[in-house]
Amino acid sequence: DAAGFTADAEVSQQVVVQSFEIESLRRVRDLRPDLTLTYLGSLGEGFDEEALDALAEEVTGLGPNQADVDEALIAAAHERCLTVVPYTIDDPAEMTRLLDLGVDGVISNRIDLLVPLVAGREWSPPCG
Fold this sequence. Notes:
Elements: H1 9-12, E1 16-19, H2 22-31, E2 36-41, H3 49-56, E3 61-64, H4 71-79, E4 83-84, H5 92-101, H6 111-118
Parallel strand pairs: 1-2, 2-3, 3-4
Helix pairs in contact: 5-6
C-alpha cells in the first residue's frame, strides 16, 4: 500500500517526494498531506509570479533546472515559503555558485563533491 509506506512519523519527516508532474504530487498530497512535495521542472526565464503562487498552494519546494536559478527566483520562492533545490548539478563550481545564491539544497549525482561544499554553511527553512 503506497499510502502507508511512510506511516512512521519520524520517517515521514525525512521523505521528500519529487515529480515533474504536478498531478502526481496532488495524488500524493491527497494520500499523505504530511509529506514534503517538490515540483521538478524548468520555470524558464522571467518566471511567472502567478505560477509560483499556484505552486505554493500545492507543494513545499521547487526543483528547477539549474539554468533557471537566480537571486530573483530564490527570493520569490522564499517569499512563498518554498524551498529551492535545483537539479542535477555535478560540477563543483556550479554547486558553489548555487549555494552562494542561497538555494536550500542541491540534487547531485556527486555527493562526494557536494558534501565538502555544504560543510560549515548555515541553513534555515525559508519560513522558519
